[in-house]
């Protein structure tokens, strides 16, 4: 490559880095739009590669607590909510073309409301002790409207996400298949910017851990002891998250 080409490539890299830094600075300017301390149950330690020194925390959540694939009701994410998000649900479900029409609909970008530390249902199985306490309870297109509806930022996170429409049929337990009357429901499928890098100032705590969260929670120790750490999660003006202060947690009380 000739020298002018090298200089141009270097300039483009520097410009891209400057843009990223400027965006990050803007996102974190002023007061955070959300600040909440979560545990390892909700912020799962990841290592992209076994030998990698790059550390990530993945925001873990439950799409709908206690929901079975075989339930026959849409819950809060019903047809009215789908229409509120912009889905065209005018074709009757009895129309022969309804199945193909609705199943072809694409996912949409929304804001998902995640409720933290909800009361666990009676009779919850033992795996609940290692699952996230964040659950999707609402969705919308306007962040300001949702924050007015859910003002408690220590209980409700409102985050960018993807949601999609599902065309369902009633479950017949006798033949173990879906038959009969159809209905529409929505589901939050993905949290955007759901993986957050660990800042250098907090790396020591995580570098001392010899297992990722998924590996740890798969062991009897993980079920008995509970989360090993807590971290403060912030969201800024661009709705992007970052990690603040982190602290080690002692053994959970029985």
Describe this structure in words.
This protein has two domains: 1-30; 32-248, no CATH class. The chain contains seven helices and ten strands. It has helices at 3-28, 79-84, 98-103, 143-149, 203-207, 213-217, 220-225; strands at residues 34-39, 43-46, 56-59, 108-116, 134-140, 156-172, 177-191, 195-197, 229-235, 241-248. It has a four-stranded antiparallel sheet. Strand 9 and strand 10 form a beta hairpin. The termini are far apart. 22% of the residues are buried. Mean pLDDT is 81; it is low at 13-23.
Itemize the secondary structure elements and their pairings.
Blueprint: H1 3-28, E1 34-39, E2 43-46, E3 56-59, H2 79-84, H3 98-103, E4 108-116, E5 134-140, H4 143-149, E6 156-172, E7 177-191, E8 195-197, H5 203-207, H6 213-217, H7 220-225, E9 229-235, E10 241-248
Antiparallel strand pairs: 1-9, 2-3, 3-8, 4-5, 4-6, 6-7, 9-10
In short:
With 254 residues, this protein is an alpha+beta fold. It has helices spanning 3-28, 79-84, 98-103, 143-149, 203-207, 213-217, 220-225, and strands at 34-39, 43-46, 56-59, 108-116, 134-140, 156-172, 177-191, 195-197, 229-235, 241-248.
Major β-sheet strand ordering: 5-4-6-7
Determine the strand fraction and express it as a percent band. 25-35%
Termini separation comes to 65 Å
Shape from CA axes? globular
How would you spell out the order of helices and strands? HEEEHHEEHEEEHHHEE
Taking all residues together, what is the mean pLDDT?
A: 81
Query: Roughly what percent helix?
Result: 10-25%
Taken together, the total number of domains comes to 2
Radius of gyration, in Å, reads 22 Å
E-strand count:
10
Major sheet details: 4 strands, antiparallel
Helix-strand category = alpha+beta
Count of helical regions: 7
Unreliable stretches covering 5 or more consecutive residues: 13-23
């Amino acid at each position: 490559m000739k020298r002018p080409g090298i200089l141009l490539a270097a300039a483009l890299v520097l410009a891209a880095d400057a843009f990223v830094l400027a965006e990050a600075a803007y996102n974190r300017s002023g007061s955070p739009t959300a600040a909440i301390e979560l545990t390892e149950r909700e912020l799962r330690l990841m290592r992209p590669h076994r030998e990698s020194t790059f550390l990530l925390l993945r925001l873990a959540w439950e799409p709908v607590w206690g929901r079975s694939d075989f339930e026959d009701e849409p819950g809060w994410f019903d047809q009215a909510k789908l229409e509120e998000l912009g889905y065209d649900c005018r074709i009757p479900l009895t129309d022969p073309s309804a199945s193909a029409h609705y199943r072809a609909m694409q996912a949409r970008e929304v804001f998902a409301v995640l409720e933290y530390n909800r009361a666990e249902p009676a009779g919850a199985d033992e795996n609940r002790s290692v699952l996230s306490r964040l659950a999707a309870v609402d969705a919308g297109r306007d962040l300001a409207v949702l924050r007015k509806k859910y003002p408690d930022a220590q209980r409700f996170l409102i985050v960018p996400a993807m949601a999609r429409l599902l065309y369902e049929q009633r479950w017949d337990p006798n033949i173990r298949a879906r038959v009969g009357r159809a209905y529409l429901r929505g589901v939050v499928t993905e949290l955007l910017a759901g993986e957050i890098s660990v800042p250098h100032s907090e790396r020591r705590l995580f570098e001392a851990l010899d297992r990722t969260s998924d590996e740890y929670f798969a062991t009897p120790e993980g079920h008995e002891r509970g989360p090993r750490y807590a971290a403060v999660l912030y969201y800024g003006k661009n709705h992007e998250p970052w990690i603040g202060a982190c602290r080690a947690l002692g053994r959970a009380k029985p």
